[in-house]
Amino acid sequence: MIFNKLSEKLQAAFQKLKSKGKLTEKDVKMVLKEVKIALLEADVNFKVVKEFVSKIEEKATGEEILKSLTPGQQVIKIVHEELTHLMGKEKSELIQGREFTTIMLVGLQGSGKTTTTAKLAHHLKGSGHHPFMVAADIYRPAAIDQLKKLGEKIDVPVFSLGTNTSPLNICRAGQKAAVKEGKNLLLLDTAGRLHIDAEMMAELLEIKEVLQPDEVLLIADAMTGQDAVNLAQKFNDDLGITGVILTKLEGDARGGAALSIRAVTGAPIKFVGVGEKVNELEPFHPERLASRILGMGDVMTLIEKAESSYDKEQALALEKKIREDSFSLEDFLEQLKQVRSMGSFEELISMVPGMNKKALGNIKVDEKQLDRIEAIINSMTKEERINPDIIDGSRRQRVARGSGTSPQEVNRLMKQYRETRKLFKSFRKGKMPFFPGNIPVR
Amino acid sequence: MGIWKRIKRGGLWERIASLLISDTDKDIYEELEETLIQADVGVSATLDIIDELKNQQSEKNLKGTDLLTAFREILLGILPVATIHFKDNALNILLIVGVNGSGKTTTAAKLGFYFKQQNYSPLLVAADTYRAAGIEQLSLWAQKLQLPVIAPEAGADPGAVAFDGREAALARENNILIVDTAGRLHTQKNLMEELRKVKKVLSKDEHNLHTILVLDAISGQNGLEQGRIFHKYLNVDGLIMTKLDGTARGGILFAIARELKIPVFMAGLGEKPEDLKPFNSQLFVDSLLEFSEKTT
Q1: Which residues of A touch B10 (CB under 8 A)?
Q2: CA atoms within 13 A on the CB side of A63
Q3: Which of A240, A440, B193, B196 has the highest local Cβ count within 10 Å?
Q4: Number of Cβ atoms within 10 Å of the Cβ of A89
Q5: What domains can be seen in chain A, in order of their start residue?
Q6: What is the pTM of this model?
């Protein structure tokens, strides 16, 4: 996924929060401003954004959050949770287990109905489903041809009556034919239309009333802008949609339209289209889209990991040491162990927002290197660990021998330690890296 | 204004006009910002437009209709005026590109119709050999509009199809060649490279070649990214904005024009063949603002 400047800004704002021991309402407001911009750039409708942000503000400025030990993380967590919540908590399945299921696909021109009809048939084929597709788009030239060709590809029958009869007639006859052929899943591919075209919308309503579909799915393009609310509202008002399929999500659109559609219709997003091939349809995961809309990595997993393995008392003790500038090699070792208990370093880094594989580039974390550092520190006397400045040439030789490393490596560690200390000094001035402790990377 | 009136259904932009001429003391800029964002203009273009208007207002102490006029001028200033020129005595080639579902095939057919009306001699080429029935769609349109079309086998190499189309146009002495290509997301590198090849095939012999990006008016901020990347690969000469007869106003045009300086060539204002019209930025902006009516 592309991380644009805005999400970088957003991440920078989050980063600031993360480093803060205590949050003020002003801090929260600053971050929420960035959240707002990120959501707007992701095409979430303006009104939806406004409501969302004020809701977050209410929650995030509560006493409990501001006083918590990791207030910055708490705010991020709230943003992400609310976003996921707004998107529908869990993945939503299609209606299943009925004797005969009818699914009607509706949407604007070019949203991807015909392709999605075939994808859905392909997806539902097997597991007791015997799909049957009906080509009810009599308006777009060659739309029937397109569905037939797709049907051949996935080996699902396509019913059509040409273009000289009404879509309602086609659907009705299609339903009969499906029953006759012993099929139990009817998919109706309707023509694309503008939601403000009253005549065309009435045509859909008629089909719905006669066919009584179990599902009316709105097919929406992930690249849709602010107008998503208008079209979704109208389709829902006129037809009562039961779900949404978001198409073309394999691109770099952030897909904020999904949030708008969900907010105005309340209908769950059931699938996402992620490619042109018939098998490129996936169940919808609200969390993933929430992260995508915010332009963040898997922040939540990271926060949870950090929370579960990071002992709060230890954190307080560390904070005190840093404040007193008494951070020793012993603490350095402790930090190292803490971070390692959270998982492999590369795994952790990949969860940091902005740090996708590409951004990581050729930074390779050598886990063995970490073992050696542990060995070096373990070979020191307690005195040396607390006051590393006393380590001279001969002590260095001894430590190197004891840990099975070289004096150069001991030197390198000393340098890293001093840099960490320096970093912690700047932390006291308010610039703290996300992880406590400076882990050597090379 | 005629057909351009179709743009203003929905009332979003009219709010701006009434807001600007309202002469109230309240902060109009916040509401202006909201409206522009809701019109898909995008955050950064919106902030720029508002800054510019604020500057002009305080410099010249603008009020009421003068403020609205200034706003109109700012919008017009963003849209490039340059447009595409066609030669009568040579082959003009239009390479139609865009993401899936933006309306390329329909637009290619309507363009053919437009040029025929203008007494050119157009030839259509169905180089969308990938999408199921993409070729049939253009062929049926051609039949309906009585336009000649080159329809290859499904799955044929688009570069080869384009080449054959060019040869055919030269042999038949057509002066407009409209090449419809398969939709592709701008993030698909190999498909973008494929388009670059098609363009290369067509640009031999210095014909008058124009690459036209088709953009759906409902596009959100991703439209700008589409513009950027198609432009990077192909040097887009003009935009066609489709589906302007819906409730979306294509505000992303301002964001694209501001950054990429690509002129808008035509606008799709309805489903009928004759509803594809040469883009007129004054009519466009005035329709958005209901300018003429509000000020007279």
Answers
A1: 230
A2: 0
A3: A440
A4: 12
A5: 4-86 (1.20.120.140), 101-296 (3.40.50.300), 302-429 (1.10.260.30)
A6: 0.79
